[in-house]
Amino acid sequence: MAREAWALAESQHGVVSSDQLREIGYTRQAIHHRIRTGRLHPLHRGVYAVARSYVTDHGRWMAAILACPGSVISHSSAVALWRMGPEKRDLIELSLPSYSRRRRPGLQIHQRPSLQRRDLTHEYGIPVTTPVQTLIDMSLRLDRAGVERMINEADKYNLAHPPQLREALDERAGEKGAAKLRFILDRRTFRLTKEELERRFLPLARQAGLPAPLTGRFVNEFEVDFYWPDLGLVVETDGLRYHRTPAEQARDRLRDQAHTAAGLTPLRFTHEQVRYEPEHVLGILRATAQVLGQRTTQPLAEPLESSSRPAIATK
Q1: How does pLDDT run across 245-284, given as a tens digit for each residue?
Q2: Distance between start and end Cα atoms, the chain
């Protein structure tokens, strides 16, 4: 029995419940004896760490599940499990897909009969809300910056990419949190048309004291959005803030490095900044124009400029 109990605990991140021990033949007296001799360490009522008092975070979460059968890790604890952010201090959060009202010391149990099968999964063998459902739940608590950080982490760890999120949110129209998450997601992944980008950006450049730039030119073998040859300034704009592929990110770095090596000053704004944060864009442009204006008497390296498409890297 000891070997069977150890194997069970190992499969559950070092924890077992008294119900599980009784199922494999342990009596109540045998369980109490092992508690007294230090082979079982109580974590919750009827839940124990085996052989050692310390358990990992996965052991903590699994112990909480055993203490509240039928529940799943959710909210900030699910965020931590999925590596999308921190957990609420000294408190494990669970969701119970039923009307049952349970209380356990050290656990915050949310009564959520509306949870569906699609909202639940297992990770490391631990029942937990899916990354999508976790993002929806936390969007009701966090500000925009906090939600964006979580979306970035979900994308980084391949948990949920923007197209998957959009599809899931379409299925959850009217659900609490879904509308806010959709608004934030769409705001950061939309693209301005070339005409609208120029219509919004060029007035900001004028307000910053910059002359009219060249547009759609190839500089250092890359097509750039806006170029001021006399100032040595290149401005690039990015759409699709989330889910830029490694190849796209590498190409962006290569572009900026090529411009810098040629003695130019590269600036990069997102389409969202141009559309929704024009004050920030204007402030950066003004500061840059002031600095570059003081350097116009100094010679700049000659960038490679052409009006035709080169054989390599394009925007």
Answers
A1: 677 778 888 999 999 999 999 999 988 889 889 999 999 9
A2: 65
All structural domains of the chain: 1-55 (no CATH), 57-187 (no CATH), 194-306 (3.40.960.10)
**pLDDT exceeds 80 at position 240:** no
User: For the purposes of burial, counting CB atoms within 10 Å of the CB of 52, is it exposed (0-12), middle (13-18) or buried (19 or more)?
Assistant: exposed
- Give the dihedral sign, CA 180/160/249/145: positive
CA 303 to chain centre: 38
Output 312 or 52, whichever has higher pLDDT: 52
Contact 281, 204 (CB under 8 A): yes
Burial class (CB in 10 A: 0-12, 13-18, 19+), 59: buried
Tokens of residue 282, six digits: 């204007």
What's residue 127's pLDDT? 98
User: How does residue 314 score in pLDDT terms, banded at 50, 70 and 90?
Assistant: very low
Residues 175-189 pLDDT 10s:
888 998 988 888 777
Distances (CA, A) of 56 to 39, 42, 292, 302: 17, 15, 54, 58
Bridge partners for 47 per DSSP: 17, 44
Which residue, chain included where needed, has tokens 């949110």? 169
When pLDDT is cut at 50, 70 and 90, the band that residue 129 belongs to is very high
